[in-house]
């Protein structure tokens, strides 16, 4: 194993290392953000009920993504720490276990898709058309989710070894295939059938299966710092415990976003305002979520590069390099978020116009959207720089196996603090409600600093 005893994460100069590992992930995450916006535009143009159906399906789809990504984050953290400690046997066991867990996750959501897709959509609407569109979309996305969970796991396994190029290519393949086949299958262009929402779902899973095929070829054909083998394999309690010590909090963190969005929409719905204003606020908040992905996704890509570096050097007991990666991550993340905040502050009208159809440019509804949407974008974006710091602290905690701290931060930010404060401020007025976002980020950052000081005193100082 001498050829892999000096992993680049332990010896390469930090700034070139961090940029080399992060930029590919940041680029691919931007492609994912672009796909999310384009996909919504295609679906909305097919039928007004189609976008509603896909939106209603999103919470359950997000839970699927949460299990896939959260489990993979746990595997990534464990592999990186074991490689840093030169424990290649346990690193290999973690990688193999990861692929097995991906298949188990798929089987669970296969059953959910077969048994509960229609029932889930029917919880939120009685419109038969919306229910049918939602059933079609959810059934395909959940039942054929093997491509998503497997490609996600493969990406995280490679990222844990310092390989960021193949994961980037994997994500690009899925996103590009999806974007190409979306209009073809939704609208029936050329010899393709007109499938509507079902076509959007098929394009999604087809892209995921293309990604899975590529990443599996890379994993089993190329040479890496970890070796996946199923010969004599069995699930080990200690490996599972170490994976889900980080993975379970990551799953919770991924899942609660849908609860927060539903909670904000519920607060708007029960507010003492006219129906047209409630609709405008819900639309403005939905647009914000589409737009903010272009700011947050590069930071999430950055943490994909920072996390294995921190985990590797933590495992190697190299405190200096671990802190160096953390500091650089904070500086870059804060710079990205500052640029995003500046855009939201200076050009909110232009950002909102991206989601306006030509037929609605002079409509009263469009004017109302701008009226309520501009304060929404400007006020929430005040939280961006603090969010950058919180994300990097969370990355540090996950990378060293303290995923529970990250979970507490996320739950506090999005549920314990944000929703109650938003509800109380909505009683003042609807514009004041959006200040709940920067308030939640300030409190969450304080919690993160307390956790960091505790870790520094009890554990990190001993490295």
Structure description:
The chain has 17 helices and no strands. It is an all-alpha fold. It folds into two domains: about 45-235, no CATH class; about 240-463, no CATH class. It is globular, with a radius of gyration of 22 Å.
Main beta sheet strand tally, sense and closure = none
Number of domains: 2
Secondary structure: number of strands? 0
Residue fraction in strands: under 5%
In short:
The protein has helices spanning 8-11, 14-46, 48-84, 88-122, 128-143, 146-160, 165-187, 197-221, 237-270, 275-315, 319-346, 348-353, 364-380, 384-399, 403-426, 430-433, 436-458. It is mainly alpha-helical and 463 residues long. Helix 10 runs parallel beside helix 13 (364-380).
Quickly list its features.
463 residues, mainly alpha, 17 helices, 0% strand, globular
Mind sketching the topology for me?
Layout: H1 8-11, H2 14-46, H3 48-84, H4 88-122, H5 128-143, H6 146-160, H7 165-187, H8 197-221, H9 237-270, H10 275-315, H11 319-346, H12 348-353, H13 364-380, H14 384-399, H15 403-426, H16 430-433, H17 436-458
């Amino acid at each position: 194993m001498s050829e892999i005893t000096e992993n680049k994460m332990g010896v390469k100069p930090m700034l070139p290392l961090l940029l080399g590992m992060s930029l590919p992930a940041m680029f691919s995450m931007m492609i994912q953000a672009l796909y999310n916006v384009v996909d919504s535009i295609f679906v909305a143009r097919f039928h007004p009920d189609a976008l509603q159906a896909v939106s209603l399906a999103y919470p359950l789809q997000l839970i699927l993504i949460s299990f896939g990504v959260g489990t993979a984050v746990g595997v990534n953290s464990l592999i990186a720490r074991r490689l840093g400690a030169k424990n290649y046997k346990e690193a290999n066991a973690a990688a193999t276990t990861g692929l097995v867990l991906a298949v188990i996750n798929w089987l669970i959501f296969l059953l959910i898709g077969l048994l509960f897709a229609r029932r889930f959509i029917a919880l939120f609407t009685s419109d038969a058309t919306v229910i049918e569109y939602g059933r079609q979309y959810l059934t395909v996305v959940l039942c054929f989710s093997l491509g998503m969970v497997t490609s996600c796991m493969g990406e995280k396994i490679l990222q844990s070894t310092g390989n960021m190029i193949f994961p980037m290519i994997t994500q690009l393949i899925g996103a590009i295939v999806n974007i190409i086949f979306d209009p073809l299958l939704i609208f029936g262009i050329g010899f393709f059938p007109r499938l509507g929402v079902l076509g959007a779902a098929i394009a999604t899973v087809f892209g995921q299966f293309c990604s899975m095929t590529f990443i599996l070829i890379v994993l089993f054909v190329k040479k890496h710092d970890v070796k996946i083998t199923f010969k004599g394999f069995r699930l080990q309690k200690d490996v599972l415990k170490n994976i889900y010590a980080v993975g379970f909090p990551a799953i919770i963190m991924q899942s609660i976003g849908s609860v927060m969005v539903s909670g904000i929409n519920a607060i708007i719905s029960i507010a003492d305002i006219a129906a047209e204003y409630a609709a405008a606020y819900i639309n403005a908040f939905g647009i914000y979520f589409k737009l903010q992905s272009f700011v947050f996704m590069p930071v999430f890509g950055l943490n994909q590069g920072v996390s294995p570096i921190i985990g590797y050097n933590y495992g190697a007991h190299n405190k200096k390099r671990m802190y160096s990666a953390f500091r650089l991550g904070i500086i870059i993340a804060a710079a990205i978020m500052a640029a995003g905040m500046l855009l939201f502050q200076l050009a909110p009208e232009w950002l909102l116009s991206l989601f306006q159809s030509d037929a609605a440019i002079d409509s009263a509804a469009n004017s109302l959207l701008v009226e309520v949407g501009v304060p929404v974008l400007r006020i929430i974006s005040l939280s961006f720089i603090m969010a950058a710091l919180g994300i990097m602290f969370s990355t540090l905690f996950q990378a060293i196996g303290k995923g529970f701290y990250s979970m507490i931060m996320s739950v506090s930010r999005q549920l314990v603090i944000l929703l109650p404060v938003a509800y109380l401020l909505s009683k003042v007025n609807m514009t004041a409600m959006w200040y709940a976002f920067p308030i939640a980020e300030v409190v969450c950052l304080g919690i993160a600093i307390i956790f960091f000081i505790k870790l520094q005193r009890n554990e990190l100082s001993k490295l």
